[in-house]
Amino acid sequence: MSSPMVASSRREWKSKCWWSRATGWWCAPSPARTRERRELLEWWLLSMLYLGGFLLFFLELFIPSGGILAVAAVLCTGYAIFELFDMGQQPLAWICILMTLLYVVGLFRFWLRRIGHRTNLGDSDASGADVRAAASLLDTTGITLTDLRPAGMANFAGDKFDVVAEDGFIPADSEVTVVENTGNRIVVRRVGAEARYPRRGPPRPEAGGEGLYRRQDPRCRRR
Questions:
Q1: How many degrees, rounded to 5, is the angle at CA 49 between CA 43 and CA 80?
Q2: Same domain, 73 and 165
Q3: Which of 133, 145, 147 is nearest to 186 (CA)?
Q4: Residue 9: what pLDDT?
Q5: Interior angle at CA 54, CA 50 and CA 58, nearest 5
Q6: Amino acid 210: pLDDT
Q7: From the first residue on, what is the mean pLDDT of each consecutive set of 10 residues in the chain (223 residues)?
Q8: Range of the domain at 93
Q9: How far is CA 204 from CA 24, 138, 201, 215, in A?
Q10: Residue 199: its pLDDT value, please?
Q11: Are 77 and 53 in contact (CB under 8 A)?
């Protein structure tokens, strides 16, 4: 007659056998099966580490981590490749190294293209905004920020613009008015100063206009 301890061990063994027959996985422990499970677990861990390194490399492009994600990605992929060499899988390890290099180079080119596209868009938007703002400055009054010799800086409604003095020199902190705006060239005149280049019209008498009138009059021509 068996003891209760022996009976319980038999029931436990029967339950294990039934579970192994039903699932086909947890069978009676053996050194070979334990080694297979361990190798399978190692392969899964190495695969997750390697793919996790790729994911961290990708996230480094969009999340400003100060290089922490990149270092973690290098550690994950490096450890996975080192374990492959240690397991005697040299061909697979070299293939992983080549794939990692190609992936990193592709991500770097994508990052350069993305940064360049942002820079071009920013420059075009800024230049377009400057041109539109400068186009509306005609007859606007502002203050010179620097001496205009003849070029310098002036402030119009809180915005800074590169301007050119019509008279050749205007000191800083002077009130000026925009008299010409052609493209990116903004010409200003000091408030209260006379125009250096007046508009075209009949010449003044004090500048010899009387003689010009006589020469232009058909009756004054020599016959």
A1: 70
A2: no
A3: 133
A4: 53
A5: 165
A6: 47
A7: 51 51 52 71 86 88 82 90 86 91 88 64 50 67 87 86 85 88 82 59 45 48 49
A8: 15-125
A9: 113, 27, 9, 15
A10: 45
A11: yes
Q: Burial letters for 2-13: b for 16+ Cβ neighbours within 10 Å, e otherwise?
A: eeeeeeeeeeee
Find where tokens 């020199």 sit: 169
Contact 139, 178 (CB under 8 A): yes
| 195 touches 179 (CB < 8 A) | yes
In the block, residue with structure tokens 């580490």: 49
Phi, psi of 185 (to 5 degrees): -100, 115
What was the pLDDT predicted at 209? Answer: 46
| In the block, residue with structure tokens 């190294």 | 97
C-alpha dihedral (15, 17, 22, 28), degrees to nearest 10? 120
Q: Are 69 and 55 in contact (CB under 8 A)?
A: no
Residues 169 and 91 in one domain: no
User: Does residue 180 fall inside a structural domain?
Assistant: yes
Name the domain count of the chain.
2
Which residues contact residue 104 at a Cβ distance below 8 angstroms, ignoring those fewer than 6 apart?
57
Query: What amino acid occupies position 164?
Result: V
Question: What pLDDT sits at residue 184?
Answer: 73
In a domain, 203, yes or no: no
The total number of residues shown for the chain amounts to 223
